[in-house]
Design brief:
Layout: E1 2-4, E2 15-22, E3 33-36, E4 40-49, E5 52-66, E6 73-87, E7 96-98, E8 103-105, H1 107-117, H2 156-167
Parallel strand pairs: 6-7
Antiparallel strand pairs: 1-8, 2-4, 3-5, 4-5, 5-6
Bound molecules: zinc ion (ZN) (2 copies).
Length: 168
């Protein structure tokens, strides 16, 4: 994701609009992301602040993650602010990335930003029933009939009643 910014060199205070749209962003670079459902879009401005080039932009996309319980795809919008400083070599400053030539590469910044936005866990819906521990069936789509009941002695009598009713 490159910004060609030669027009800003030597022009202190000059700004240029930035609009980058990357189709088919590679999901395999990210943990837990199944696929990118929308292009990665970066929109903002790049400003020459005394030959330090400051990007202020908004990054947005939409991804599919796996439900933490049943592994079904879950859509998730991603939107965050990107604020980055870039300069040619010679700047001793942890917050400033160096670049050479007349193109600034946002690949690393965007990737880091997206990873920070990824939720720890997602659910397809709040009361997702998950997968059957015995056969792997998605319990949201119906009961597979496996007996996975952990018998609690306090309810044993009650369960007995239900079993009898079902058999009638
Ligand atoms: Zn689920
Ligand atoms: Zn099952």
């Amino acid at each position: 994701m490159l910004i060609a910014m030669a027009q800003l060199f030597g022009k202190k205070g000059a700004k240029m609009p930035v609009l980058l749209v990357e189709q088919n962003h590679e999901a395999s670079d990210y943990p837990d992301v199944v696929e990118f459902l929308q292009p990665v879009k970066i929109e903002g401005t790049l400003t020459n602040e005394d030959e330090i080039f400051v990007l202020e932009a908004k990054c947005a996309t939409e991804i599919a993650l796996e439900c933490s319980r049943c592994l079904a795809p879950v859509k998730q919008k991603i939107c965050f602010e990107l604020k980055e400083r870039f300069a040619h070599t010679g700047i001793e400053d942890e917050e400033t990335q160096t670049f050479s030539g007349d193109q600034i590469d946002l690949t690393v910044s965007v990737r880091r930003g997206i990873i920070e936005e990824l939720p720890m866990r997602v659910l397809c819906h709040e009361d997702c029933k998950g997968l059957c521990p015995a056969c792997g069936n998605n319990l949201n789509t119906g009961d597979c009939g496996c007996d996975t009941t952990e018998r609690d002695p306090r309810f044993a009598g009650l369960l007995g009643l239900f079993d009898e009713n079902e058999e009638v």
